[in-house]
From TrEMBL:
Region feature (Disordered): 21-41, 538-588
Pfam families named among the record's database cross-references: Pyridoxal_deC (PF00282)
UniProt-listed GO biological process terms: L-glutamate catabolic process
SUPFAM superfamilies: PLP-dependent transferases (SSF53383)
Protein name: Glutamate decarboxylase
Organism: Chaetomium strumarium
Enzyme Commission number(s) from the entry: 4.1.1.15
Amino acid sequence: MSLSRHVDPEDIIHHLQDLRMPSSQATSSSTGGQQQTLQHLTPFSTPYASQRDIPKYQIPREGAPGDTVYEMLKDELDLDGRTNLNLASFVDTYLEENAQKLMVENAGKNLADNDEYPAMLAIANRCVSILAHLWGVRKGESAVGSPTVGSSEAIMLGGLAMKRRWQERRRAAGKDTLKPNIIMGANAQVALEKFARYFEVEARILPVSKKSKFCLDPELVRENVDENTIGVFVILGSTYTGHFEPVETVSKMLDEYQEKTGIDIPIHVDAASGGFVAPFTHAGAGGQKWNFENPRVVSINASGHKYGLVAPGIGWIIWRDKACLPKDLIFELHYLGGTEESYTLNFSRPGAQVIVQYYNLIHLGFNGYREIMENCLANARILSKSLEATGWYTCLSDIHRPAPETTNTAEAAAAAVKGAVSSAVGRTEEAGPGPETSAAYVAGLPVVSFRFSDQFRREYPHIKQETVSLLLRARQWIIPNYALPPNESDTEILRVVIRVSMSFDLLDRLVADIVQVTEQLMEKDEVDLLGVLHEQKHRRKPVTKEERAEKEKKREERKHKGGTMGGVKEAGKDVKKRMEDGIHRTVC
Ligand SMILES: Cc1ncc(COP(=O)(O)O)c(C=O)c1O
């Protein structure tokens, strides 16, 4: 008999269930189910524990006790990844206790019910004002904005406003409005492309390259804009590598284009993650004017649920001035004697996140956010440097590399002086984390994108990078491995997003785990994944005091022999040997 290549596990279980139970008792989730006992001793003393599955596809006729269903759902959800170890996502997974209380206390409030919840509306407006100021709104301009469900909705609105304004201008000039286009890099997040497709705008998706840091290339922007370009989406920062796209460089290019042609093309900045990073960090946007200080930037979006540090479900869109938001996108809502303006896609939406956003802004303040973002960047630098120190990996992200002379150096020097003064007088500067800040480094998101080094690939051609991701998944870390955008898709990257909840200790564990799984693969060379997975179980035993002392001794001996602490400085040489002790904080 040949083995079947596919089986339906639900069929098997239901079949066995039917065999075991008299037909009068057997229940199928899809046929409704019978009267169930409502009494039970513990949630696990009900038939759900052993005989019946929870109805999945159709509503059961009778309900079941709440604590039973709760326990069953909780158990099923244990199959999900652990949020804190999900390093694939930019979305916040940590909520401090007061924020949790505010979320629960306001869970029932609909942000659309302005008249019923005026305090919540006032809080939303305050957040808009705070963000507009944080993003450099200028005197004399009246910024407008709104909370959205996430950056995606905000991007739709920003794009739509640019399209409508372009249409207005074209109609006023007696020109057609048939072929609008919008410019973005091939690294653009799907929301940007969705805007183009849903709102019938040609997406001019420009190829990215190593030279453009896998981001939007200003030179290509120059070649691709024309009279039908409604605007340019510039991203702060790229989801692939965390690089900030050069808003000011693109903007200067558009200035030149306007001088030559008279055509004024606006920029919308997709600052989904960077909107809460660049304003706070010493590195800023690497010296580039990325926000409303730059007159060509008409609107900016950010996700409150990313580095805004709120639970999923909130984004923000701000236009620099009411004039940038066409009137026909604004709906006047009249109820209970009041009039409200609405310019969002969704009507009902959760309100609690808005309250938590305001809580964070007030509770953390500028310096609190700065400290958190600087910590995230510092941890991302440690991870990047540790990975490169192995010689096995190369980073495509640059936040651990020294800032170029022309950008952050003034800030770096100021920060270094500040740090030196602080240590001299024995106190910590209120506004700075110490002598080393992000100002000394290339600006970007706290993201580490890395791949096998060229030498590693030469020496271990059989090892697939994807296997590193799989093996780390077995240790509960979620670190995706995926290809760069289309014309660079031969390069695969592993990517770690460092969020607020990545403590230094956890980072230490992460580095150790990456080192261990890579070593295992190197020992196997020709990968036998199952074998490796099996072995992994046995290798992950705790290190004893004696073992640690022995390692310490070896390290000291090497130091005295004039070694290079695990061979860090000799990247590429004797890879296996120098990693025998793993990576240590001292080498970072
Ligand atoms: C650059 C960028 N733009 C847009 C989005 C979409 O944001 P949201 O998930 O808040 O809708 C993301 C999400 O990761 C992003 O990184």
